[in-house]
């Protein structure tokens, strides 16, 4: 074909133009629609950030209320979809449950899946924002064998989510404002990160004009991997293994450096950030506050702090410019909140949803968008002939 340029892992090639999120990996800068992540994390709410990412501007008070109200009115799941959960084993990973249920959700809306109808796109955007947290909470309840609760629309978005996860039928549930605020902040920090693997997946599937549920479900599947969103679960498992095995942080770091069995320091390193991930800095502050506020003393936090200290002072990590990423400390907060480890990546998915929706819509709205179809450099056999006399006829 004459094609010679290979870009393994898309390190050098832009797949699209985008006006949503800006990252400067050298300086550790992250901005959504121009607003610094630090300011949004300190002063905004997750729903406002979702609005900003999707529609491009901060909402007025009236727009915000209408948006929040619209989401609240779409929180119910079809009763039949609840039975979908019964068909899965109780040990099912909540990420598999989430991606499958989101794809299944589209089957209830087959007459409103037209990607070229802006009203239908808007309706499905709201449905996904409203229903994904409910599906996520039910995946959690399913995994611990508890009954599903109905959404409580007297609560706000994050409070409702906490109640659906931790409330128990017939017992009153008091939302802890410390938890609600911390979770809201974490969701803001995860809300978008330009063309990462899951967002690129959402855009690629969307470029085929597949429906938005299929695209978001594919994004959730991409996020599941331990090199991407699954890293938050992998970090906690890593910390737990270091604690249980008693091998010590230095020995573990040595094994990472020796690349023994391909072991990596999970929650470290990033394709784009070659300095401290600005999100990780904010998450670390939250971890201190939340654990202190809840009175949790987690020995895994000590191991994480020691790991970070050792790695940041070690030539292997310095030469490769490996710093903690957003996933390094989040698991400790989720654990303190009471979420099981296998729910951590689901929480990431809820946070990333506005970003996926914003990117899907940006691409879908652009008449110049073409179907994503990467090229390859073929390195296989040139031409061979099927053996004379060989036949299955
Ligand atoms: N531990 C040990 N070595 C590492 C790590 C790590 N976490 N990350 C990168 N390296 C080494 C890697 O072995 C390679 O060394 P060498 O040049 O000797 O072969 C060098 O650093 C460059 O790594 P790479 O794999 O080419 O870098 P990448 O940009 O392709 O990968 C990454 C980025 C995030 C997949 C990788 O850093 C990684 O696997 N980190 C651990 C998993 C993780 O925490 N993922 C979460 C990413 S942030 C948010 C999210 O997406 O969820």
Task: Lay out the secondary structure.
Layout: E1 21-24, E2 29-32, E3 35-36, H1 37-43, H2 46-55, H3 61-72, H4 79-86, H5 94-105, H6 118-144, H7 157-166, H8 177-190, H9 197-206, H10 212-223, H11 231-245, H12 249-257, H13 278-293, H14 299-312, H15 315-319, H16 327-337, H17 344-365
Antiparallel strand pairs: 1-2, 2-3
Bound molecules: carboxymethyl coenzyme *A (CMC).
Describe the structure.
The chain has helices spanning 37-43, 46-55, 61-72, 79-86, 94-105, 118-144, 157-166, 177-190, 197-206, 212-223, 231-245, 249-257, 278-293, 299-312, 315-319, 327-337, 344-365, and strands at residues 21-24, 29-32, 35-36. The chain is mainly alpha-helical. The chain folds into two domains: 32-228 and 341-365, Citrate Synthase, domain 1, CATH 1.10.580.10; 231-337, Cytochrome P450-Terp, domain 2 (Cytochrome p450-Terp, domain 2, Orthogonal Bundle). Strands 1-2-3 form a three-stranded antiparallel sheet. A hairpin with a 2-residue loop joins strand 2 (29-32) and strand 3 (35-36). The relative contact order is 0.14. The mean pLDDT is 96.
